Amino acid sequence: MSSRSQRGASNITTRSALKEIMTLNKFNLVYVRLLETLAAIGAICIVFVLVVVVYDVTSRTLGFGSVIWSGPLTEYALLYTVALASPWLVHKKGHIMIESVVDLFPLTARHLVGQAACSFCLALCLLLLYYFTISGWESYRWNEADIRAITLPRWAMYFPFPIMFFLSAIEFSRFLFGSTQFLSGHGSKTDGI
């Protein structure tokens, strides 16, 4: 084989590898945008809670009475806030962990503790993903209602949690199997939020 044909074959291999990397980068960008969008919707839920509480308090203060839907909707909004923002927090390493204690361990033990914690979190996410998917589906299938001041479909309470646990499981998988480390190695100065 001539050196020219070897270079051509090498260029084709390099181009296909670059295409693959670009595709992965585009997928990663879309994925990160999804996490950011869900977190932004969670933030909007917090603003919604603020507006509803102020409206309800103002309404009662002015003598118009309480708004009956404010309690249940703010409770659901708070559930959605947690569920939608959690995968983004894991992605940014904004979750709660005690690295200052882990930093007292030898380097190899730190890595093992990080892997064990990540494995535990991944297993827990997968277990809860299964539980909330089944619970939400059963609630939808049986047309269950959450009856309080207003009636809401019970599946709406379960709806965001399978999404949260699925995306969080992806994030913990990235820490476990990818190049990103679960523990930053900076003690209390994490590289998260």
Architecture overview:
It contains six helices and two strands; from the N terminus they run H-H-H-H-E-E-H-H. A two-stranded antiparallel ribbon has the order 1-2. With 193 residues, the chain is mostly helical. The mean pLDDT is 84. Strand 1 and strand 2 (151-153) form a beta hairpin. It has helices at residues 3-61, 70-91, 99-102, 107-141, 155-158, 160-177; strands at residues 145-147, 151-153.
Report the count of strand segments.
2
Alpha-beta content class: mainly alpha
Separation of the first and last Cα atoms: 54 Å
Residue share in β-strands: under 5%
SSE blueprint and pairings:
Layout: H1 3-61, H2 70-91, H3 99-102, H4 107-141, E1 145-147, E2 151-153, H5 155-158, H6 160-177
Antiparallel strand pairs: 1-2
Helix pairs in contact: 1-2, 2-6, 4-6
Task: Give a brief description.
The chain contains six helices and two strands; from the N terminus they run ααααββαα. The protein is mainly alpha-helical and 193 residues long. β1 and β2 (151-153) form a beta hairpin.
